[in-house]
Amino acid sequence: MKSKRKSSESSCQIDSMISNRFAKLGLYCFFTFPLSMLAACGGDSGGITPAAGASPVVSSKESLVATPFGMQPTSKVFALKPGENLGRDGDTVVKTDKDGNIIERMGSIGNLPDSTSKMAAVQNSQTSISGDGYLTEYDVPSSDVIASFSTDWVVPKDPAQANKILFLWNGLISSDTKTFMQPVLEWNNGAPGWQIRNWVEINNIYYHGNAEPVQAGDQLTGIMTLQSATSAGYTYKISFAGYPELDYTATFASPANQLAEEWETRTDSQTDFPPQNYARMGNIKYLKYGSKVNQPVTWSIYSNGALSTPSGLNTVVNNNGTTNTSVDFYFQ
User: In this structure, are strands 205-208 and 77-79 parallel, antiparallel, or unpaired?
Assistant: First the structure.
């Protein structure tokens, strides 16, 4: 029988890591806020702590699935149903309902339940590419707490090859580098065509929500918003604007302190890319706690060994170091 006990948490007892970080901002208690009204309060919130330890032993014959974190064994990928979130009970990762009740205990790394993901296994031809794409990253100042991070982009034209897997996303990375969150546009990942899906990584275990089909030319906004902080951790909502049925929350032991944009490919052939010059990741908004002012972002560019485009441009950052920055990922 599934436990209905609520996940353990502490409302107003901030641990030393959180209190030291928030003391600089004059915040000493649990907080919950929408972007339009940042305020301290005394409520409570569920949370998640990444499990410690080595990755589970994976059979060399185990099927792999494509994720925005690279090719991963099926045993390490889990699905969240609508209304489910990620929480914790002590040091155990759990799935919770909207009220914080535990509905499944995920266990620790190396002691996980059977995968619930229905992601299709990927052919071997997509598991040994030379590189995985182009990435821009920005480390926020250590004194800042990220309140939200969002990016707009347009779904590219359909690639000529329907059998390759592509990802385009914005994301946040935690200060301990053990957790990632990403609203992701996917091509041909488990279903033909373009679709959007929200992903989370917790210590080399991967979680995703449902997917929603989208079409070339659709406008997307990927958003990650800090909802609350307790001694249990930092709770974020991962979402696409206009698709609330895909939203879920996850809580991490460490706060996010790095912004990212990435064009990620599962192919070694540039002809598998969308038939247009580039995709622009624009209207980038980074808000820090205590301010409604968009903050400047200075991107660093990484290639991760990916193939070069015919133009040689690959990744172009516009207006770097300003509040009006954008990132162009080139396909041609």
Answer: parallel
The H-or-E segment that residue 17 falls in is helix 16-23
Helix or strand or coil: residue 178? Answer: coil
Q: What is the pTM of this model?
A: 0.79
pLDDT in tens, 258-316: 999 999 987 778 888 999 999 999 999 999 999 999 999 999 999 877 778 889 899 99
Task: Judge contact between 146 and 288, C-beta under 8 A.
Answer: yes
| φ/ψ of residue 327, rounded to 5 | -125, 125
Is the separation of the CB atoms in 15 and 29 below 8 Å?
no
Give which of 33, 18, 115, 15 is closest to 291, Cα–Cα. Answer: 33
State how far the Cα of 315 lies from the Cα of 328, in Å rounded to an integer: 6
Distance CA 279, CA 328 (A): 6
Task: Determine the Cα–Cα distance for residues 184 and 168; give it in Å rounded to an integer.
Answer: 6
Show the DSSP H helices in the chain as ranges.
16-23
- Using a 10 angstrom Cβ sphere, with 0-12 exposed, 13-18 middle and 19 or more buried, the burial of residue 316 is middle
Q: Which residues of 146-162 are buried (b: 16+ CB within 10 A; e: fewer)?
A: bbbbbbbbbbbebbeee
Q: Which of 205, 259, 256 is nearest to 229 (CA)?
A: 256
Number of H-type helices and E-type strands within the chain: 1, 22
Query: Is pLDDT at 241 greater than 80 in this prediction?
Result: yes
Model confidence pLDDT, tens digit, residues 67-122:
998 888 988 899 999 999 998 777 777 899 989 899 988 765 455 565 555 554 44
Give the least confident one: 134-143, 236-245, 267-276. 267-276
Residue 18 parent element (H or E): helix 16-23
